[in-house]
Amino acid sequence: MSDLRTVYLGFGSNLESPCSQIVRAVTLLAASAGLKLLACSSLYRTPPMGPQDQAWFINAVAQFSTSLTPEDLLATTQQLERTLGRIKTRHWGPRVIDIDILMFEGEQRSNDTLNLPHPGLSQRAFVVLPLLEIAPELQLPCGTLLSSLVEAFSGDTIERI
User: Fold this and answer.
1) Domain CATH number, residue 19
2) Per residue in 54-111, pLDDT tens?
3) Which of 3, 79, 118, 158 has a CA 20 to 30 Å removed from the CA of 10?
4) pTM (2 decimals)?
């Protein structure tokens, strides 16, 4: 791979053995062309965002190096979601797997297809805490240190497993 860039992906699942689904998704992406796994966080158990009439989620964040374009990475993650059986039934509803591109080195954009960095990145404990675990010195494109966001989540329910 040439012209490698760092990318951070967020994973979530609350159906069909969620821990196994996340491990499987990370493993399959690590075996994909154009991607190399650099680090993976612990798994975290969190309440669902949005509708509360569903099981709690398991979440994780992984760091990869990639030669893919952001669009190709999005296509790869969406294809993997379909392969693993994701069916979108409702916004923030239950899912076998959800894979979000959180940050892609050197990329900032907002369009109908892709928003980089992910617009909810700094507001979600289930993203910030696992990301901080694998990249404690990470600075967001806006200049904010990731570590400075931790205080905002002191009251959130999140369990490292």
Assistant:
1) 3.30.70.560
2) 999 999 999 999 999 999 999 999 999 999 999 888 888 899 999 999 999 999 999 9
3) 3
4) 0.94
User: Catalytic: 86?
Assistant: yes
> Catalytic one among 98, 109, 112, 160?
98
Q: What single DSSP character describes residue 32?
A: S
CB 69 within 8 A of CB 81: no
Of these residues, 86, 90, 109, 160, which one is catalytic? 86
Active site residue 72: no
The domain total for the chain is: 1
Query: Which residue among the candidates 53, 95, 124, 156 is catalytic per the annotation?
Result: 95
The closest alpha carbon to 159, from 126, 123, 120, 121, belongs to 126
CA terminus-to-terminus distance, the chain: 34
Residue 160 appears among annotated catalytic residues: no
100 noted as active-site residue: yes
**CA of 106: how far to CAs of 6, 62, 70, 111, 160, in Å?**
9, 18, 10, 16, 30
Catalytic residue, chosen from 53, 100, 109, 160, is: 100
